[in-house]
């Protein structure tokens, strides 16, 4: 009953602000945007569209298109949606413009946290943060009188107990699909062990204690997971939660909303959020902070850039946030963090480092994604795996001209 | 036919083949001997990212792409000879695997190229007899079918062939992944927990099954058409001579079909050596990769926009060489037959 009235109130709130973000100015220039396609971008581009003459393209494969499209002259898009990592190729190619002037002129409402600076110049406006953090079935833990784990060792103990009492099909889930996901899990765990990926800027540095620790911990986790973990991406883990098959997982904050989606989920209200567990005492949680935001192309006229920037700001204003409060962990004024955002915020507050996006990190991420599986399947031991990662990285870095 | 008419008929397709087949091939061939590198400068970079409650700014040594006066990134191309091939084939790692202290075959199988080659070859060579056998079996069965049923049976047998390969692979994956209905059914029968995607060999089995299911109809159509032209007089005289059904098949039908069996084998080898959809469809990268997938992987840009064009070019040249080597025995046979028949 309580839930229903709450839902009703929420629905009323949305309808009440139905005419939200009537655009503050009339846009007469055609503005095109290319962004990822998840819920938060849908909300932002819908709000941008109210200014008129906006053509929004939402595409999960945007990272393949964006560098080429922005390199065209004139650029094929005015506004680009990026995350920390996908901004790198645009910065490298010089196809996005510094935004300091535009921020000074139109950006009074932006909070300092939103301004993404590279070497002192603003290149992007962030709108939300994302991080992998612990999601757990509060009902299962409570039933067995278990505390919420705060370290990975505790996660393993809890998982061991849940398995011994057969509380759930698989105690753990993880985004360990070979490739990008698996590499991302290693990045989290490696940074959580206090590792750094490079020395002297570009020389690889994973064959060390932290690398060993990260691999061993990942291997230990797999004992409590669905044996098909090497094909398990974010959606797979989300569905495992929704179908009640797992009890804990380190999953993206942007997936939290799906746990309470009554249309898909059989565990509405039962999944709670907490900070990402710590790998080694004294270190920050084993996770990385990501942001999503907008950039403006450089190969367009200044007038177009000004129009595009204003449109983008209209898309990211407080009205939009209030209407879509739970779609993301927003950085925008007017956001009130709900129950589902607690995990991401706790993870960030505990000092989790940002994902170290750079050209060399892109190569490293690929090398990790192609090699970590060999250790998990037993094809290589830890040392050989870490050596192979460094060797793969060296090959790629030489070919790219970094070394 | 007059030479002029001949040229006018053939000219456009020769031109298009040159434009879309020969030219890209030459370009890839050249690229496999070149490396195009970005020019980077070392910088100390300050980066700020959102955090709670305040921004996190880090200052670290990094590299940045050098831009020219027009704001375009500078890159340089150099000829590197066979270096890229050496990187892909990695002879040092191969000799290390078979040296003392190396674990031989299993160590060789951790090098991408050989891992991919092993799968590509076994996949091609195992599916080849299965496709031809199954195709022939269906063709013979349909040929003996009641006239009124032939149409529907042919239609149904052709269905797998008209399904888009990736979609077909995905359908089979969804039947078996996690607690897919087929896995659930198998678990019910055997009473065991089955995970088809947890180890390489089960995924390979699914891939083999999928490929045979998908391609057998092609062999079937070809063989079925050829069966209509088997000389009935020869067959009848074979019956009068007391030949069993098996003997008729072996001494009359198969020799008649032989040129087409070779044709199907040629097409299948060429197609199958480029195995790719299965890897993507079954997302088997952790356990099984193919040569074509390796090229794709080199070409796919990472988040930071890096891609390994040279290695992709070298790898596709090696793939092409592999196909040619596989085809040589069949082409020699066809050539010999052709020569004999022309005498």
UniProtKB/TrEMBL annotation, chain A:
Signal sequence, start to end: 1-21
GO CC annotation terms, alphabetical: periplasmic space
Intracellular or extracellular location(s): Periplasm
Source domain of life: Bacteria
Predominant localisation class: periplasm
Record's keyword annotation contains Glycosyltransferase: no
Entry keyword set: Signal
Protein family per UniProt: Belongs to the bacterial solute-binding protein 1 family.
Name this protein carries in UniProt: ABC-type glycerol-3-phosphate transport system substrate-binding protein
Organism listed in the record: Rubricella aquisinus
Lineage start: Bacteria, Pseudomonadati, Pseudomonadota, Alphaproteobacteria, Rhodobacterales
UniProtKB/TrEMBL annotation, chain B:
Keywords: Cell membrane, Membrane, Sugar transport, Transmembrane, Transmembrane helix, Transport
GO cellular component: plasma membrane
Compartment list: Cell membrane
Secretion signal span: none
Transmembrane residue ranges: 6-30, 119-142, 154-176, 208-227, 249-267, 308-331
Gene Ontology BP annotations: transmembrane transport
Membrane topology: Multi-pass membrane protein
UniProt cross-references to InterPro entries, sorted A to Z: ABC_transporter_permease, MetI-like, MetI-like_sf
Source organism, top-level taxon: Bacteria
Name this polypeptide is given: Multiple sugar transport system permease protein
Organism: Rubricella aquisinus
């Amino acid at each position: 009953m309580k839930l229903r009235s709450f839902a009703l109130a929420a629905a009323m709130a949305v309808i009440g602000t139905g005419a939200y973000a009537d655009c503050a100015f009339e846009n007469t220039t055609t503005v095109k945007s290319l962004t990822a396609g998840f819920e938060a971008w849908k909300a932002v581009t819908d709000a941008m569209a109210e200014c008129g003459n906006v053509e929004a393209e939402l595409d999960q494969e945007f990272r393949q298109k964006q560098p080429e499209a922005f390199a065209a002259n004139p650029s094929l898009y005015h506004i680009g949606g990026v995350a920390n990592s996908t901004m790198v190729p645009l910065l490298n190619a010089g196809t996005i413009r510094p935004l300091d002037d535009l921020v000074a002129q139109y950006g009074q409402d932006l909070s300092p946290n939103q301004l993404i600076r590279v070497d002192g110049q603003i290149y992007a406006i962030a709108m939300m943060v994302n991080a992998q953090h612990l999601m757990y079935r509060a009902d299962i833990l409570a039933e067995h009188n278990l505390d919420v784990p705060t370290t990975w060792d505790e996660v393993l103990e809890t998982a061991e107990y849940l398995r011994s009492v057969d509380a759930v099909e698989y105690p753990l889930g993880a985004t360990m699909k070979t490739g990008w996901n698996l590499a991302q899990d290693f990045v989290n765990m490696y940074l959580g062990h206090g590792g750094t990926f490079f020395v002297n800027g570009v020389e690889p540095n994973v064959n060390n204690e932290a690398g060993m620790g990260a691999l061993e911990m990942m291997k230990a986790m797999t004992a409590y997971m669905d044996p098909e973990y090497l094909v398990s991406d974010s959606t797979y883990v989300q569905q495992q939660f929704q179908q009640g098959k797992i009890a804990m997982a380190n999953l993206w904050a942007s997936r939290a909303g799906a746990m309470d989606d009554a249309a898909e989920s059989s565990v509405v209200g039962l999944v709670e959020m907490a900070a990402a567990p710590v790998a080694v005492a004294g270190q920050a949680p084993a996770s990385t902070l990501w942001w999503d935001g907008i950039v403006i192309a450089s190969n367009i006229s200044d007038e177009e850039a000004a129009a595009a920037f204003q449109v983008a700001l209209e898309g990211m204003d407080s009205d939009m946030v209030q209407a879509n409060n739970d779609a993301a962990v927003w950085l925008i004024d007017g956001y009130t963090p709900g129950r589902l955002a607690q995990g991401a915020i706790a993870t960030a507050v505990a000092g989790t480092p940002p994902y170290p996006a750079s050209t060399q990190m892109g190569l490293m991420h690929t090398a990790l994604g192609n090699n970590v599986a060999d250790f998990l399947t037993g094809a290589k031991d830890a040392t050989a795996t870490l050596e192979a990662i460094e060797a793969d990285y060296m090959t790629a870095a030489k070919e790219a001209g970094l070394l | 036919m007059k030479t002029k008419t001949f040229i006018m008929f053939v000219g456009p397709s020769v031109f298009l083949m040159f434009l879309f087949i020969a030219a890209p091939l030459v370009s890839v061939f050249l690229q496999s001997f070149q490396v195009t590198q970005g020019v980077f400068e070392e910088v100390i970079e300050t980066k700020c990212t959102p955090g709670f409650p305040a921004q996190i700014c880090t200052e670290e040594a990094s590299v940045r792409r050098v831009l020219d006066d027009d704001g375009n990134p500078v890159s340089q191309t150099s000829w590197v000879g066979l270096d890229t091939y050496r990187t892909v084939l990695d002879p040092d790692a191969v000799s290390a695997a078979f040296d003392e202290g190396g674990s031989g075959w299993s160590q060789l199988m951790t090098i991408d190229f050989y891992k991919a080659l092993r799968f590509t070859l076994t996949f091609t060579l195992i599916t080849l007899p299965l496709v031809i056998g199954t195709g022939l079996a269906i063709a013979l069965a349909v040929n003996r079918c009641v006239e009124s049923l032939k149409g529907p049976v042919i239609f149904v047998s052709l269905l797998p062939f008209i399904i888009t390969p990736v979609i077909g692979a995905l359908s089979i994956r969804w039947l078996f992944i996690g607690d897919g209905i087929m896995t659930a059914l198998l678990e019910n029968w055997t009473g065991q927990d089955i995970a088809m995607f947890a180890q390489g060999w089960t995924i390979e089995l699914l891939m083999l099954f999928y490929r045979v299911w998908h391609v057998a109809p092609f062999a079937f159509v070809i063989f079925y058409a050829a069966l209509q032209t088997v000389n009935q007089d020869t067959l009848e005289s074979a019956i009068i001579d007391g030949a069993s059904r098996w003997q008729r098949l072996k001494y009359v039908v198969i020799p008649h079909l032989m040129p087409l069996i070779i044709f199907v084998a040629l097409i299948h080898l060429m197609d199958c050596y480029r195995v790719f959809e299965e890897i993507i469809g079954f997302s088997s990268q952790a356990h099984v990769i193919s040569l074509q997938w390796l090229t794709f992987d080199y070409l796919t840009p990472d988040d930071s926009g890096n891609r390994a064009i040279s290695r992709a070019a070298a790898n596709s040249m090696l793939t092409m060489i592999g196909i040619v080597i596989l085809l040589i025995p069949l082409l020699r046979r066809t050539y010999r037959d052709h020569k004999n028949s022309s005498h």
